[in-house]
Amino acid sequence: MEYGLVVRWLVVYGALAALGRPVAARLLSTIPGRGVGFALPTALVVLGTVAYWVGHLAFGPVALGAALLVLLALALLTGLDHDALRQRRLELAHGVRPGRVHVEAALVFVAAFCLLVGVRALDPAVYPVGGEKFLDFGLLKTLERAETLPPEDMWFANEPVVYYYGGHLLTALLSDLTGTAPRYAYNLSLAGFYATLVTAAYGFAGAIAQERANARRPAALAAAFFVGLASNLVTAGRLVISALPPALQERVAATVASRSRYSADAVLGGIDSFSYWTASRVIPGTINEFPLFAWLNGDLHAHMMGTPFLLLGAAVAFALYRTAPRDLRRRRVLAFVAIPLLAGFQTVVDTWSVPSLFGLLCLALALGPDDPWPILSRRVAAWRRARDDGPLVEETGRLVGALCVAGVAGVLGGALALPFLLGTAGGREVAVLAAAERSSLGGLLLVHGAFLATFYAYLLDRLGVDRVLPLVVGLGAFGVVAVATALPVAVTVGPLLVFGWAACRTDRPVGFETVLVVAGAGLVALVELVYVKEQAGPLRMNTVFKTYMQVWVLWSVAAGVALPAFVRWVGTRSPSVPGTRSRWLRTGLAVAVVLATIPYAGLALSAHVERGGDPTLDATAFVEREHPTEAPAIDYIDDLSGQPTLLSAPATGRYPGPGGESGAPPGMYSWESSPAASLTGVPTVAGWHHEVGYRGSDAYLKRVRDVDRAYTGTPAQTVAVLEHYDVAYVWVGPAERARYGSVSFGGVEGVTPVFDTETVTIYRVDEDELSAA
């Protein structure tokens, strides 16, 4: 395996974290540990933001150099002690000097990085099946070829990419910085994002729990477990069912099958039929991924790469939550500078999670200890203090103030992201979800049950029986109505919203972890009511897919804080339960949650090792091994300079073929689906039908018909298409023959073969001869 590359990337990550540490410490100075765990995400945000903007003028070494200079300048500005400088002494500022917690964070990063490197080394290939690896690798390769941003779309030649590519941009920058070819950078970057997420969760949970005696390290380790290794309850549930008596097994399996995407036979399959894939497909019509599944599957995808920056946004909200009212300048900088800047970059990385950044800002202010109105207007805040309108009006005013602050921050963040947003595809709208499409109670419990058990136990314990009973009575009637109206989510997370809000706004011993609980519960409830209507459906599939990853990450940190705190703290509100017995019950819950969420990791990782081959990090090594007759042709295209336009068969999926037949080859998610463009970054006229979701069906299908005409039409029609799209090369391989039959350009002047194997012929288009003809 490429051990030298692993070491090289670890050194570069360490250097970037060292430069990002003082910036993070200054930004998050009001939270315990001053942002330990967020050094690398902070550095990557600076690096990516500068490179993105400079890249519109010149991408590549110029953009990378400018980004490194800005990061270095910020590190010096925030990392050196200014008082010492006045005395002509070089000293690190307070909070930046290395300590034990910094070593811990570094060790967590290295351990997580090496774990994922080992996982990817056993299955490094960017296979087109079972995910979006062709898309992700294609974006990385097209960025490698780009001279300016946005890069050209490898599946829609002569037009810029309209997909969020910020994470791939960071990968391209790291590839250049380490001198690593994209085929290796793909998997090393994947491991880096995983390690960055685990380290951020570790540091964040530890910071939240810092105020509780001896709780920092248990909370940090628990959060790292939940975000890095834990899964939903599907695997544990199947193991439990397999232990039941046969007659009961069948009844339970039938019940589960009627409320999920599984068949009764699949439920009864037990360990022998285990597949890492099935646990991510629980609720019908949706995708229910969790982090470990996503990293095992190996897509270098936006919903994964955006997670460390989502936690960074939550940490900024936590810093605002803890900043004293008298430090109004810092509160305004965090709300109106830090969050909008982060949101501007996150828009390019993972647009789906940007609203959550402002939602976290709003909740931090609404549920925090201080009035949010001074951030907007001291005059309005003074006017509110002079009034005595009662607690209900006061709470409503706080919520309105928090919404206004988040709204202003959203406008500023939107302005920074406007160039990207204007270039993305339109046509999306928010639609109301029909009752028949909502999740069942069983499906919700399978996906979120471990977190729900943790949070309900924690919040009920902290609220106390005397306060919980009135809430339970009030919510009981609401639960009955919710079931009657086919809204099971109200029963699962509705009380969490009420309990969490009540705990934060009273004198209960809770902290920012409860803000994260409320945030995640709000997201789960939201996708049961509305969804984003788009071509990437059907219905809310993509909405749940992208939202549930955010929920898992936020709840992992919250559970990391809540579970150890619940076990260690025996309150006095239940005198009938002896302290020892209560401690055993609490420990039992914690053990049960861990045991219910760990089997997937054990089974999936062991199966991954068993089916793994010789370790390598080369994402394209499979091409020569599995497609030896086409590999030389892929290499020929990859060696071309710049981004000449390629003509190849469109991967239309369900759309009609040249004769009007449905399901015409090559389809999608197969080797024949635009392999040359996807593996080289050389753009083809019409690639995967993902472009329908980006640009609309009319634009995509027009190109599909043009490509079909070029392969099957008269010489004049072929020439017209080649000239219109400025085609430089034509690819004729198995997909083209499957779609069009025998293909020959013998009657077209200026189109001559330049590369030929037994399965692929590549033609070069001579523009001058083509025009003359």
List the main descriptive attributes of the protein structure presented here:
773 residues, mainly alpha, four-stranded mixed beta sheet, 6 strands, 4% strand
Would you write up a description of this structure?
- Keywords: Membrane, Transmembrane, Transmembrane helix.
- It comes from Haloplanus vescus.
- With about 775 residues, the protein is mainly alpha-helical.
- The protein has a domain of about 150 residues.
- About 65% of the residues lie in helices and about 5% in strands.
- The chain has 36 helices and six strands.
- The longest helix has about 35 residues.
- It is globular and about 85 Å long.
Shape: globular
Q: Alpha-carbon distance between the termini?
A: 52 Å
Strand order of the largest sheet: 3-4-6-5
Helix content: 55-70%
**How many strands in all?**
6
Computed structural class: mainly alpha
Number of helices: 36
Biggest β-sheet strands, sense, barrel: 4 strands, mixed
Percentage beta strand: under 5%
Chain-averaged pLDDT: 91
Low-confidence region ranges = 571-578
- The whole-angstrom Rg is 28 Å
